[in-house]
Specification:
Strands 2-3-1-4-5-6-7 form a 7-stranded mixed sheet, with helices on both faces. It has 204 residues and is an alpha/beta fold.
Length: 204
């Protein structure tokens, strides 16, 4: 008798144009060997009307079915009851990180506060476009437009996120690791312990 695949609803939240759609396009390619990573123009074109995007993944020797929505879903995201939330920002636009700390954090804490075990992960997108701060910015102690990893991790810890990760959906850099991390956390939401990690945000 076949084992029924547990279903997990995953919601991506974040400002417009941070790269959520491109990130989802990369995820549809699945976990592929590094040498099979495809160039940007070969990424599948996803349509908002096709949401939720369904992923069939085998973890811990059992099948799972993940349904992933983002804020452009035809089903208003405020009507969803996700088992796992992924907060996304654009590494090249500092304002989108600050928006997670204000607007989207408030949304999670007020609208999606139905489950204390709801795991929340933060993902920085467009890693390939990050620019190092100039010497002038460093000397003036002025923050550059691009967000550095430890800075983002600090915000994730402040927001009590379970995990922080970053990747480039266009080049495929670290996407394999991010997909695996999302899959593992999503799978854990179906267990009695739940998907929350031990206290303290970790970085991959």
């Amino acid at each position: 008798m076949a084992t029924e695949a547990p279903e997990v609803t995953i919601l991506l939240l974040g400002d417009a144009e941070v790269g959520k759609s491109t990130f989802l396009s990369r995820l549809t390619l699945g976990v592929r060997p590094r040498e099979e990573q495809l160039p940007p123009y070969d990424l599948p074109v996803l349509h908002d009307g096709d949401q939720p995007f369904t992923f069939h993944i085998t973890m811990y020797n059992r099948p799972y079915r993940f349904y992933i929505y983002d804020t452009a879903s035809p089903t208003n995201y405020t009507l969803l009851k996700p088992s796992f939330i992924v907060l996304c920002f654009d590494i090249t636009r500092r304002s989108t990180l600050y928006s997670l700390r204000s607007r989207w954090r408030h949304m999670v804490e007020t609208h999606f506060n139905y489950d204390e075990q709801l795991p929340v992960m933060m993902v920085g997108l467009k890693r390939d476009l990050r620019k190092e701060w100039t010497e002038q910015e460093k000397q003036a102690r002025r923050l550059g437009e691009s967000v550095m990893p430890q800075e983002a991790l600090g915000v994730a810890q402040e927001m009590r996120c379970d995990r922080y990760a970053e990747c480039s959906a266009v080049t495929g850099e670290l996407c394999r690791e991010v997909l695996e991390d999302i899959a593992k956390t999503a799978a854990k939401t179906t267990t009695e312990k739940g998907g929350r990690s031990d206290p303290g945000c970790t970085i991959m």
